[in-house]
Each structure stands twice: as structure tokens, then as C-alpha cells.
Fold each of these.
Amino acid sequence: MASEAAELVFDEATKQYAGRPEPAVDQLSLTVPAGEICVLVGPSGGGKTTALKLVNRLIELSTGDIRIDGTSVKEQNVVQLRRGIGYVIQQVGLFPHMNVEANIGTVPRLYGRSKDWIHGRSQELLELVGLDASYAKRYPAQLSGGERQRVGLARALAADPPLMLMDEPFGAIDPIVRSRLQDEFLRLQTEVRKTVVFVTHDIDEAIKVGDRIAILREGGRLAQYDTPATILEHPADDFVAEFVGADRALKALALRTLDQLELRPLDGTEGAPRLACDTTVRDALALLVAEKRDALIVLDHGGDAVGTLTRDDLLR
Amino acid sequence: MTPALASGGGPVIPNFGQGSSCEIHNGWFCTDWVRAHWGDTLQPALVQHVELAAIAVAIGFVLASALAFAGFRFRLLDPPIGFFADFLYTIPSLALFQLLVPLTGLTVTTVEIALVSYTLLILYRNMIEGLRGVPPDALEAARGSGFTRLQTLVHVELPLALPAVIAGLRIATVSTISIATVAAFVIPEGLGRPIFVALEQEVFKTEILTAGGLAVLLALSADAVLVLAQRALTPWSRLERRA
């Protein structure tokens, strides 16, 4: 079982279904560096899920290639290939007849791991995805939607694959739990550092989760592939600008935190609102607007005031 | 055969020798007769009945499993197999015996062929429904996780089909136990045997009631055993239904 994150390369990957005028995925070329999250986003019909499934060959390429750490997926035994890739889907797909531990142990069992090993690993993973160890003996029917998706994530991570494919993993979960799962997924990613391909139709989720975003348009063509900040600040064309939304300038504010701005010295602003330095610029601005204030005090991680920012500073 | 109960109120005397007054008056349930004939009539009939039914359900299960795998794997085979099982099921059991006796004689084989025929439809249909009822997301997860076709069948499809399979087994078992009483038309075995004898002998009510009652009890017990087996084997299925 490998554990180092892998580099993933789409090389003119194309899927053309017989009898369809347009390809589902059209000469998609992009590189996901090892350990980064690449979000595939776009309108329905953009071929996001198709592109994802080309990687683990649930759908076979028509032309072009996809390479994981330099090895073409076409050259690998399909079963071995899939066991080496974590796979998370929207409907989760937990096995209803297996308890949580057995579900998590699915792929390690295929590798012939012992019961003890699987028990230990599932305890470890339950903690990693924020579930109590007592969940090991529960059945999927006894879990909430959010808990099921955590178990789905743990199952995908069980064999410590270098690459994870996530197909709208939080799509069926209510907004509050969804936002929390996104946060926890990002925290988890700082620990496990997998290469992740993440499909969503939600641009806000893409901006929040992605190190890079690939925007696909109808006919499976790549419209832009870049960091969230670049896509928001410099959309490649009208399609991308429209897709990311008229409020893209505001969305861009959510990508920066207060400690990335140049602070003014503390002087005579004692009564101003006090915010932690990892607050996003967007949240800080929202607070100033809501409280009708012109400036705020920035606190460091220890809670000490380190400087101030005006409303104009935030918008600069 | 004489009419069921002699009219005129006179006592009906079973023609098998000396009996108690309950027997002489053809009481509904003569405990002394049951006690006297448990060992030579009722118990052997019960054991034979269990054997007839168990063999039929076991063979039916094996055949239906083979057919179900074929019908599940190759969808084109499902309609003809289903039609064949349907057809067997619709033949009245007495007619089937008549058809089989010239071929296989007055033997256990004749009886078992008929009994097995009736289990096929129920078992086959339930197995197919069970296999097709596996949630598609579980299948996708299995495929995406690197299960082979066989591993998917063994570790995902079969266990998830089990509740439906056992439900079919319950119906097949209960109906086989019931139909097996008719086997006495062909061979002197099973709980149908004492019932036939009692009918020939001026309808001896105790014997009919006891043998019939044993068949009912046997069916209920077999059903209870299968329910317990289902709970033990698929602890998750009740949770699923509640969720």
C-alpha cells in the first residue's frame, strides 16, 4: 500500500460515447500536483463526473491518457488500480449489511489485512473523521447523513491511497453540516496530504475546498484551470466570469485572511470590534457593515491586539 | 367411501378393533387413541413428513439458486425461467402425480419431483428480487473500491439478497409441508397417510385432527426456526426497515 501522494496528469483525455454528437470529455489536459486538491466544477453536462470516473476506469477513455505518478491507468490491472484510489460518492454507498468497522475495512480486507489490523485502523480513522470509537459497531441505518459521509471518507482513506476521487461528496448534506464537513475535510487534508480530485457543481464549495479549480463547460471542454484567487480575479472569458458569479469580487475577499494585510499601528481605536487574525476579509467586512463601524482591531493567535485595519484597507 | 358421518345419531365405530368409548363414539379428540398410536402411526408419519418436506425444499433451493444465478447474470434467461417456474406452479398437484406415475411409478421420486416443482417459483422469484434489490450506490462503491465481479457477488450482492431469499424459503417451506400431505396418494408416507386412513374408516375425527394438527404445528415451527435464522443472519435488515 502506497501512502505518498501521487501526481495526476490528464493528457488530452477524451471520452466520446457512440452516437453522441459531442464528446462528454474533450481533450482534457491538466496536472494535479501531488498533495493538492483539484476541484472539477461546471454546469451539468460539463463532464465533471465523467472526467473523474475516467481516472479509476469506471468509464474507459476513448483517446488520450491519464497518468498517476507517470504510470498510465490503461497499463494497470483495473482492480489493482481501483484498490489504490480512494473513492467517495455522494450517495456514500456504505454496505448496509456491514457495521462501520467492516465498511471501513473493505479495501484492507481485499488486501488480506487481519481483523486486528482492520480494528486498529478503523479506530484511528474514526478519530480522524471526528466520530467516536463506539461508532465502529453501528450499522449504516443507525447513522445520520453527515455521519455516513464521514464513514465513507474513512473507508476511502483506509488503505492509505495516494489519490482520492470524491464525486460531490457533500452534495446530499444539509448546508450547516455540509460547511462543517468541508472544514473538517480541509483540516484532515492538512494531516493526510492526499492528491484529491473533487467534483462539485457548487462554485462556493469549489472556492473553499480547492487548491486549484478546473472549470468545465458544456461538451466537456476545460474553460479555465487555476487557483481560486486567479479565477475570481482574472476569469479567462465571459463563460467563467458568469459561472463564478457577479459577486466574484466579494468571493475573492473570502480567500484572504486579515493577517495577509498590512496592519496599521494601534492608536485611539480602543472601542473598535476585535477580530482574530485568521478571520477572512469577507467576514471582517460583513461585521463592519453590520455594526456600521469604520475600523477593527486585529488579534494575534494569543489574543493580543497587534494592529488595526480600516474599511478601505479591507477593500484594497 | 361412505358419507362423512352416518345420519340418525347411531355411533360410528372405526373398524380397527377394540377401542375406548371415545373411539367408539368417534369423539373429536380421543387422548387414549393418540397415546396408543403415537408410536406406531403418528410419530413415524411425522418423521416421514419432515423428511419429504426437507428433501424437497433442499433440492428446490439448490435448483432455484442455480436458476437464479443464471437469470440474474444473463437477463435474457429470466423470462423463460420465470415462465417455466410459473407453469410448474399452476399444475394441480393431483394432476402432476397422474402425469408422473407412469414415468417414475408410485415412489418417493414422484412425490419429490412434484414438491420440488412447487418450491421453484417462490424461491426463484425471491432470489431474483433480492439480487436486483441491492442498492445501486453500494454496487458502485464496491466497483470503485476494486471488488472483482465474484467478490461483489459474494460480499455484497448475496448478503444483501439474504432477507428476500429467507422470506422465499419461509413461504416455500410452509407450503411444501402443507402440500406434502397429498403425497399419501402416491406412497404410504407422511402425515397425509393417517388422514387418508381415517377418511377410509368412516372419518375417524381424532386421527384427522391429530395428523392435520401435527402438519400445522410442523409448518409453524419450521417458519419460526427460519424467522430466528433470519434475525441471526441479517441483524442489519430490521434496522434498515426502521430507518
Amino acid sequence: MQQKTITVVIDETGNSSVDLEGFAGRGCEEVLKDFQGDDRAKVQRNKPMFYSQTSDPQSRQLKSGR
Amino acid sequence: MSAYGEFETMIREQRYLIEGLTEMGYRVETHPEGAPLVGYHGDERPERAEVIIRRAQLDSASNDIGFVREKDGRFRAIVSEYDRSIGYDDKWLGRVHQHYKEKQTMAMAEAKGYIFRGKELVQTPNGPQIRLQFVAR
């Protein structure tokens, strides 16, 4: 199982960037929210693994006819 | 890879502001109801603040630096023109925000059970960046 890592970079102006690796789906959004705290979001995007992991359970269900 | 965000730091939590300023080497006064800032002549100024760095820790001609809580909950710095001109400028305020964000992040991560894996200072032409790494359980 891939390790779920969070890298926070706080720049010289005090603003931060948060990079998540190994996460998928809603858990990913919650972690990003934790590290955002009360701060204002400037950029926020999901990376490829987010989509591939979130779509998998549904497609598996359809294929198995449930 | 799964997600990425960039955030503008808002100073809202007094305790991490105090911890950050303390780490920067200042002795900080806190006044829940606010207290007047003192000017370089020893005169009380009209501005009041909840968190104050007294001028004795700055320059001989400095005024107090204050952080006042605004109606939206954010702290705003009160820094005189003179003090801005001798280095307590936007770059210095950036360092205040940086220390605040580090303290706030570390406390949140511990409270929510993230495992701290390390801190690294990365030197850039504009100043040091702080890189923190965590692992989720």
C-alpha cells in the first residue's frame, strides 16, 4: 500500500503550498482542508490518482452487476 | 500523486502568533482588551493592540509594534513608517506569517494525528522556506 505523505512548504511571505501523495477521493479533500485551516485558497487541484481511485469502486460495481 | 493546494496565510489564532514572535526572539505582551501602543518619545499613541512588542526591543527610535484583531478575526500589524524603514517591513511581516504558519501547522497536525517526518529549511534568494513533511495514519 502506498504511503500517504503530506509536504507543506511555507514560503518567505508566510504563504503555504500543500502537496499530497498517495491519497485518493474524499479523504484527500479532508486532508487538504486540515492543512488549509482558516487560510484562503489561491490554487487547488486534484492530481490524476484522485480521479482514478474515486472512479474505481463504482466501475467495479457496475461490471459485477450489483 | 493526488492533490495540491496553495494558501494565503491568515493570522487568526493569537497563541500561534505569540509562539511565532517568541521564536523570533521577541518578548510579547498580550492584552485581551487591547492596550495603547507607545511612541518613540514615550507618548501613548491612539492605536491599541492585543499583542504588543515594546519598542525597547527594537531600535532606540522605534515605536511599539502591535497586532490588533480586526472584526473578521484576523490580526493586522501596526508598524510605524520609521520602523518599516529600518527593517520591520513587509519582508519582516512575511517572516512573522511564516513562523505563525509553522506553529499552527505543527499543532493542527499533532491534534489530528498526522505523523511528523521532518523539517527542512530551503534557502532561496528571497529568504528561507520551511518544508514540513507528514504521513497520514
